[in-house]
């Protein structure tokens, strides 16, 4: 049977034969504290003296397959309860998902004890933790969270605190919940910063204490995203120089399951709680009222915003209309006052970015519509370029240069929009004498400071800055890089770039490895997909792709901050080259690179070609094996 109603009828009949009238307890759509998947959900639990019956709904891609293992079991109070039977749906077989993206299962397990208040559903692939049997459980702060941290997090500030322009070393202590200490080995931290674009850090979890520590120098305000893998993401704003404790709530995935129920099944709203609880100046900006929202966003970079055929004037009006419509929606919403203020800050950031990057956004729309992602080929249409006159229209809506806009989620995007040297902002924008005018002077020097390359002329130009914060930040950046270079000079080996003409550069880089297969990986430290691919490939060097006939060559450029680069490359086995912008641009044009990561594959004869099909992890390993074995 394929229909839900008929399927459940069979299940109920079977249940009638196994149930005992002496004890029959049911819970519909129980609270699930956390999960490693959004695919499965439990719609109902029936408890009898002879069985625990689970009605499970699966949501996945239409016409895909789901397989439940015969090894699935329930766990309560440290004891396992085995599977008895699954009517109509055999285990260890693939179940086809319907055209609506749904599939339904009924599981009969050994009966749980009467005293059990919750259980875990454990399958090799699908895990649901803390499934409530009482119907009374509610989400709350992680166990062990100090009451002072709870109060600090749950109390939204009034008025909204301003961004802090200071330099300091920030220390984060991230506390994982007890039930996640074994499953999470590392935590990734992403910082959207005022001066350093997005920075990423990775730190190992102490298995005994379940804590992770991050230390980094912070130059002004930063918005942090904490990647916890299957547990989801935590978010917080950080003030420079503070020592902050963050208590991670493992209920992120459980709350997402509950939210899907609300949206798809019209179930009542439930009390959400923050994804993490934090100390620090900005802790009050992460209460759940700021995270539970329908998504007031322009969605600028999905390829569907605007139309590439719009003139500059039409596009400008489109941005204004879209912004005003969303602003009205925020005003009519039932969000708290501080949540509304935060939503408006983010919308204003996006509007500034939409006008500053309007030519690129319309080009993205063209490439999406035409499925034309070869950036080496010119467009067959002309994008009508935006001018200062168009940007002046946005300036009539709100002050585009406002320090409070730095309190929106996308600090980096907003700063880039204001400081792009190729963008002519009109006088109405009010850049002169503002923090933005200082940023426009300071940001070009961040790259130099991050490479320990500030000159006397650069230092002299800092005298023109109005706020001493930027000078202090740049000098501290350079000081930190110099110290790190000295510390890592033995472990972080950068190959000397051949001193040859640009047209001979690539051949000179691969020349020492003649007679071997060479995989050339173009990457940078700020590129998330690059880091993910490198992380996935690293274990292959000890196993499937362990060979003296294979050389891994990594080419980055000076947009990778030298301190971050020097810290990362000891963990990436291979030959590392760091090109200047002119060298990078030439090689990029030579191969028609459309982004990174990009790969050039060199065979044993020295022939090479761009192979971005190797971006697929399923293609790289067999292809390299074939090349190592002489192309067979």
Q: Which strand order does the major sheet show?
A: 1-3-4-9-7-6-10-11-2
Report the sheet with the most strands, covering strand number, pairing sense and barrel closure: 9 strands, antiparallel
Inertia-based shape: globular
Radius of gyration: 28 Å
Distance between the termini: 48 Å
The whole-number mean of residue pLDDT values reads 88
Percent in helix: 25-40%
The helix count comes to: 16
Count of DSSP strands: 24
Give the tally of structural domains.
4
- Poorly predicted spans: 1-15, 17-22
CATH topology title of the largest domain: Immunoglobulin-like
Going by helix content, strand content and strand pairing, the class is: alpha+beta
Task: Provide the CATH architecture of the largest domain.
Answer: Sandwich
Beta content: 15-25%
Q: Class of the largest domain in CATH?
A: Mainly Beta
- The CATH superfamily of the largest domain is Carboxypeptidase-like, regulatory domain
